[in-house]
Amino acid sequence: MIGTKALEPVAARAEEVWKVYGTGDARVVALRGVSASFGRGRFTAIMGPSGSGKSTLMHCLAGLDTVSRGTVHIGGTEVSGLNDKALTRLRRDRVGFIFQQFNLLPTLTAAENIRLPLDIAGRKPDQEWWDTVIKTVGLADRLSHRPSQLSGGQQQRVACARALMGRPDVIFADEPTGNLDSKSGAEVLSFLRSSVREHGQTIVMVTHDPVAASYTDRVIFLADGEVVQELDRPTPETVLEAMNTREVLV
Amino acid sequence: MLRATLKSLLGRKLRLVLSGLAVVLGVMFVAGAFVVTDTLGRSFDQVFATAYATTDVGIKAKPKIAVSEMEGEQVDTPLPASVIDEVEKVDGVRSATGMVTEDGARVIGSDGKVVQSYGPPRLGNNWIGEDGQVQLREGRGPAKDDEIAVNAAVAKAAGIKVGDRVGVLTLQPKKTFTLVGVWGYPGDKDSIGGAQEVAFTTPVAQRLMLGQPGEYSMINVKVDQGQTPAGVRDRIAARLGSDYEVKTGQQLADDSAAGMKEVLSFFNKILLGFAGVALFVGVFLILNTFSIIVAQRTRELALMRALGASRRQVIGSVLLEAVVIGLIAAAVGLAAGIGVGAGLGYLFTQLADGLALAPIGVPLAAVLSSLIVGVVVTVVAAVLPALRASRIAPVAAMQDVATPDRPLTKVSVAGAIVGAAGATLLGIGLYGSGGLWLILGGVLVSFVGVALLTPLISRPVVSALGRLFSWSLPGRLGRLNSGRNPRRTAITAAALMVGIALVTGVTVVMNSAKTSLAAQAEDTVKAEIVIGGDQNGPRPPTFDDSVLAAARKVSGVRAAAGIWNDQAQVDGKLTYVNATDDLAKLSDAYGGPALATLRPDQVAVSTQEMADHGWQVGTALTVQLARGDQHRYTIASTYDEDALPGSYLLPAAATKDFGITQPVIGFVRLTDGTTVAQVLPQMKALVADSPEVSATDRTTYIQQQVGTFDTVITMVQVLLALAILIAVLGVVNTLALSVLERTRELGLLRAVGLGRGQTMRMVTVEAVVISVFGALLGVVVGAGLGAAVVRALNGEGIDQLVLPWGGMALYLVLAALVGVLAAVLPSIRAARINVLQAIAAE
Ligand SMILES: Nc1ncnc2c1ncn2[C@@H]1O[C@H](COP(=O)(O)OP(=O)(O)OP(=O)(O)O)[C@@H](O)[C@H]1O
Ligand SMILES: [Mg+2]
């Protein structure tokens, strides 16, 4: 796995991905031939109006959902076509998740939540890496708390630490700061960015917020299930501008 | 509000099914009990109507002792033949036939064993020819003294055919006859209600079945054309006077059926008692379901409150849901109960071979009790959750659903109070003047108390139990989940506790009784060899009394004596009495005090019985035995209650008046230096012609006798299985609802890589922890209850407390298995959760 990682410059890749929900009148085409590559060690944002297919794309990339047509690769592995068991292992070992809310198991402490994917796999966390991650998220004194005793921002940082702890090929984050105030949001975002910069982590993040997008290396714009624009080294202004030129309210 | 309630009810079918199932099972048991008693009752009506079909009027002598069907076997007093002449003179009598028909003709089958009966009588009759009922299938009726005919039921069960030599045990020891005929009944029936019948010639029947030559059990009268049985009955009664019971065939049938129905109603009460336990457990289940549902519906209910629904309407909404579930469950339970009733009826006919089952009917009592029980139980169980629902504040609609766990102080205090009340009731019941109801009430109230305390106990115990599984991640998650909602876990476990506590309690009492009595018997009985058999019908096994005399002559035998047993009226009071062929020898053989042989008018009475009645040696007692006239006996000697068997010991002369004129048990004591092995083969040979009994060494005999306690344990286990099944449903229910409640969590776990198998293991561990916790509670509470009862019975001779460690361990292991089973469906459901939908779920 490590070997392929080194050879493969692309952490995740979608090729001509179509996703169709329902049939007949209820038929919704959520993705229409989306192709996108997410380079290793890069922080990518997916933006677009509500219903444009951002979450769908992410779920397909992460092996949470099946594609109707096209292929998805994580590292060197083709995700489409894996059975449930293989998909579960893929998620456990090679993918990290950060959801908008409800990221943590209420029965477990912060530390246990962070270790969860490793525990599921029956692996021991690498002590050095553990210390690094805990230090970067700044949760050292909160590790024995349960989620109900943590603020929303702290909970999201625990979720980030969990995603990072297994050093997955790629982390998917669906509006991770959607529920946070700007200060907590900024903390989470800088943490994500530093994990990309300093540790070469690959992160794909869905967001509606131009400021959040400006933490990333690249923004992919979706509309009606299609990739309509890409933007490198975004700033809040360029993102806003791109959004405005598309005359779409995000 | 009504529409909203019904909609939400239908919207959650799973909930409906799960909470209804407990009621269905309970109601099923109740309805089944009524249906089976009703059906069997009518079946017996038919049996007795057939049995007396050829009797217009029947005449019997007043029995010496009236014994109801519940109390034992009544022995007929014979009528002299002269009565027949009297009856024939009565106007309207076409014919009067003397009949001998008595229980106790035991046929020895071709395998050398006595044909058993588990209820129906084994009648010995005089042959009076074919009539509307008796129809020869083969051969002829007995004409000579060594000939018999039997009904087809006997012929089949005994495996005998016309021409065979057949041994029959009667009032007299085994006699051998030639089988000359086999008869059946209209409709190709082999028997009437399973009764085994043997017909002798009249003089032989009189001698063997009544012990009185020339006398009869009953006179069977047919009336002239145009006469009514009732009219003729009254005339006969007037002529014969008050020493005789004169009844129409219809009355005789009704009386016999009424006796059977008394037994059936007792049977019914036992079934209803166990149904009650099942429903009691069901209340826990429903309470839990409704609580979980209310918790899950918090938002919905709060929204209703915010939209202006009053507290009352919220309570009404929950209770209405309960009524609907109760009604549906009662209806389904009733239907299932009819099926169960039919099944039990069929089972019964299989046991009482040959009983023709009447068509299944549904008595009104079954319908009413089903509906009332179903609705009342459900509504009672829903009251608390309804009140809780009404306290939901409207703001909860806007807040997160997770309601913080309320402190357990109040419940625990309530539990302590209720538990103490239960213990007090139990104490009064056991030690005071109390009685069974107080004890049962005490037990139930204690259960409620323990159930209320369970949440408090559950924290440490569940986490300790869970530690056993903590070596793996799914195990740890499961353990954490089971400790998450102490109330929910506690109620689920408490439901399981009830059944297991009762089973354990009964086992403790029975095992203690068994061990205590066996130990006492080993201590008191000095006889090394005992002659006796297992009783599995209404009639005890007996043996030829000549065996005793023969046994005394065997070298190495120091003493041998027999015991006869019957009910008698002593100074007007019905009681059990024993007789012995020789009190001196009995004392010696049994190991009692040295007493002199009784003269024919002497009796020995236990000191305790003497003290109870204020009698002294020399007091004269009036004793009426099953046969013969009243007799006065003078108390000649006395003995400590346990030193000799029974409270009364009558002399040998009295045995001819006993209902069963042969000994039921014999004690043989050996001379010093003689071993059992030296004498036992000879004893076995002596009883070869008494196939109902065997000669065994003392310990084997005692173990056989106390074996009945094991039967009771098994029966209680079977009957409580339903309560335990309902509790298991409770575990399934709790898990299913928890899985539903934790959909998002499960989705998250699956998203971060928890495999399907791991998910299932997590749910299974939760189930196992809950059910083992319940079993643990049950075992502890049951052992406590059992110990309390045993202590209270100390005075009754149960002086050893025996805890069934093996059984208790088995219950825990079974509980773990049950947990695994209960988790099957919920865990499959959990594993199948669609990750995406779960994450998206609100
Ligand atoms: N399970 C589903 N069944 C049917 N249609 C669906 C399903 N999930 C998504 N869709 C449709 O697919 C389209 C894309 O949805 P998606 O959730 O990817 O949008 P999104 O870009 O993430 O929007 P938002 O910014 O609001 O989260 C929408 O039109 C949505 O209605
Ligand atoms: Mg989305």
UniProtKB/TrEMBL annotation, chain A:
InterPro entries per record: AAA+_ATPase, ABC_transporter-like_ATP-bd, ABC_transpr_LolD-like, MacB-like_ATP-bd, P-loop_NTPase
PROSITE patterns listed in its UniProt record: ABC_TRANSPORTER_2 (PS50893)
Record domain ABC transporter: where: 12-249
Source organism per UniProt: Paractinoplanes globisporus
Superkingdom of the source species: Bacteria
SUPFAM superfamilies hit by this protein: P-loop containing nucleoside triphosphate hydrolases (SSF52540)
Name this protein carries in UniProt: ABC transporter ATP-binding protein
Keyword ATP-binding part of the UniProt annotation: yes
Keywords: ATP-binding, Nucleotide-binding, Transport
GO MF term (any one): ATP binding
Automatic annotation (TrEMBL), chain B:
Localisation per UniProt entry: Cell membrane
Main location (coarse class): membrane
Transmembrane portions of the chain: 16-36, 270-294, 315-348, 360-387, 408-430, 436-457, 489-510, 718-740, 767-790, 802-825
Top-level taxonomic group: Bacteria
Membrane topology designation: Multi-pass membrane protein
Residue ranges of domain MacB-like periplasmic core in the record: 18-238, 489-685
Pfam family for this entry, one: MacB_PCD
Alphabetical UniProt keywords: Cell membrane, Membrane, Transmembrane, Transmembrane helix
InterPro entries in UniProt: ABC3_permease_C, MacB_PCD, Macrolide_Exporter_MacB
Domain ABC3 transporter permease C-terminal: 274-394, 719-834
UniProt family annotation: Belongs to the ABC-4 integral membrane protein family.
PANTHER family referenced in this protein's UniProt entry, alphabetically: ABC TRANSPORTER PERMEASE YTRF, MEMBRANE COMPONENT OF TRANSPORTER-RELATED
Name of protein: ABC transporter permease
UniProt source species: Paractinoplanes globisporus
